[in-house]
Amino acid sequence: MSAAEPRRRWPRSVRARAALAAAAAAAVVLAGIGWWVHRDVYHRSTEITDTQAQEQLWDLVDQLHEGAVPGRRSALPYEIVASGRRSAVAYGGAMESFDPGIRHVLPSPPVDGASGYWDIRTLRLPVRRPWDPGERSALPDGSYRVMTADVRADELGRDKAAALGVAPAAKLRVYVVLVPDPAEALARTTDGLLLRAGGAGLVLIAAVAYVATRLALRPVEAIRVRTASVTASDPRERVDVPGTGDEIAALATTINATLQRLDDAAVQQRRFVADAAHELRSPLTTLLASLEVALAYPERTDWPAAATTAARQTRRLQALAEDLLLLARLDARAPVVRPGTVDLAALAAAVAGQHAVTGGPPALSCDSRGPAPVHGDRDEFERLLRNLVDNAVRHAAHRVGITVRDQDGWIVLTVRDDGPGVPAKDAERVFERFVRLDDARSRDRGGAGLGLAIARDLATRHGGTLTLAPGSPGACFVLRVPKAG
């Protein structure tokens, strides 16, 4: 790895990342479950030990009431001490390691107090001799929970007290030590089982996640391979859409739709280039033919007429070049150069006034009801209006009307003519580039077929819409632009 290449901390494969993520999530869940199981097992084991100690405690108390000295064999360590006596009355379990036969380990009870009192307390057990960890019956030094119950010797009678070796006025206390070893051993065993099961579960979950992700990504790999064969010159390739109906199928559908748009754009671009070349060739051919005739027969050429023809064709070429450059800029989605506020009503009146100055038919009128402010570039709005007016003037029989209205936060401008109108099937086609529905007329009068396409692109550029109103006599183009606040 070069010094400039960043260090990768995560695998690049989606399959590996999915397996790691699944294993990490499972590890967190299993750790939480393991902690809960550990606590629950330890708690329940402790409850079982407490119940066993309580049963043993009352069993020892019953033996004392019978005047019998309990034996040393016991599931839990215990010790019975009496007031006024140095050694233990009885002991068993792991208490032998303290040798309580010489001196009792746990404290003597006070003489006063009622018998039958039951309690759980924490006491510290001293170590009378070095403790050997290998001696399983011994208790290590430390604090333990003990369960106690008191018995008065005078309730037993002289004979039973004598059999127990205590004075008739003494008080006995039974201690049962609650050792945590069984609960801890069971918890350790459970922890070991959980660790082994959890480790195997993590490996299994990671493997399943890896395989499942690999199977799920097979269509994606097929889509990648098919998409890699798509070129700008030939975007006709399509990917296979799996019949699963899941996100991958939606991805394949979206890719096919994108490829279709690219294909349509490529077709449109080729058609645009062909139409532009055709439109450029017509005036160039006319201009070249007139110049060649004039040069071949200079003495019989009407040079003013030839110059007029050349100038007319040159202006046509210039207008077409400007339209093509404007369309290229609009296709590039360039921002508005000089954003500002434009009074669309005043601009429409100015365009109508300029047409009135020329004095040519048809008659052009403008009807507005106050200012109509919109945001945008004045030159571009003027170009939009001129394109609409020029189109209406070419098709009108006698008159063209412009109206400007303020409707619910929108400025609505309409340009209506009394011409033959546009067939319903061509309502959208008229906005395509280089489209002329009246092909029989001359190109000089009909234009290049870019005016309405430019007008719609300019409307869209300013957040508005340009449509052809249906069902009206003649043609009525409706421009809707957001009103400036």
Automatic annotation (TrEMBL):
Pfam entry (one): HisKA
Signal peptide limits: none
UniProt xrefs under InterPro entries: HAMP_dom, HATPase_C_sf, HATPase_dom, His_kinase_dom, HisK_dim/P_dom, HisK_dim/P_sf, Sig_transdc_His_kin-like_C, TCS_sensor_his_kinase
Protein name: histidine kinase
Principal localisation: membrane
Domain HAMP: 214-267
Positions of transmembrane segments: 193-217
Subcellular location: Cell membrane
SMART domains for the chain: HAMP, HATPase_c, HisKA
